[in-house]
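Field reference: "sequence" (input) and "structure" (output). Example, Cell death protein rpr:
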Amino acid sequence: MAVAFFIPDQATLLRKAEQEERQILRMRESQWRFLATIVLETLQQFSQCLPKSGRKSGKYRKPSQ
């Protein structure tokens, strides 16, 4: 009984490898985008919770004696 094996040519292998690489890069980019979104939303929520009071002047003031 003979078994035939399909051996793809180099162009097909390169095309498949490039497609897989593009897919991996897209997934990685979407993961980084998702992470950046979470970080930015967390910072926005944190900044809304901070007290708005404080000195208006940024100058250093000597403590009173």
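Helices lie at 10-49.
Residues 10-49 form the longest helix (40 residues).
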